[in-house]
Amino acid sequence: MKKFKIVIYLVLAISFQILLGYLTGKGQGGIGMLTFIVLIELDPNYSFTYLLQNNDDKKT
How buried is 57 (Cβ within 10 angstroms: 0-12 exposed, 13-18 middle, 19+ buried)? Predict the structure, then answer.
């Protein structure tokens, strides 16, 4: 189920990027990555901050 959630986030981010590019007529390369990172940060299971904190705990 966790992998499926990441795929959904990717599809949403890419769709938003394509839609924004279509509406503006310009390339919107960075907005897809930014949208994906924001979606991941909002989900407590995948937060990069949470992962980094846990990674530091395992090293010590």
Answer: exposed
Whole-number percent of the chain with pLDDT over 90: 0
Structure tokens belonging to residue 55: 């990674």
Please tell me the pTM assigned to this model.
0.66
| DSSP-assigned letters across all residues of the chain | -HHHHHHHHHHHHHHHHHHHHHHHSS--HHHHHHHHHHHHHHSTTT-HHHHHHHHHHHH-
Q: Distance (Å, rounded) from C-alpha 47 to C-alpha 15? A: 21
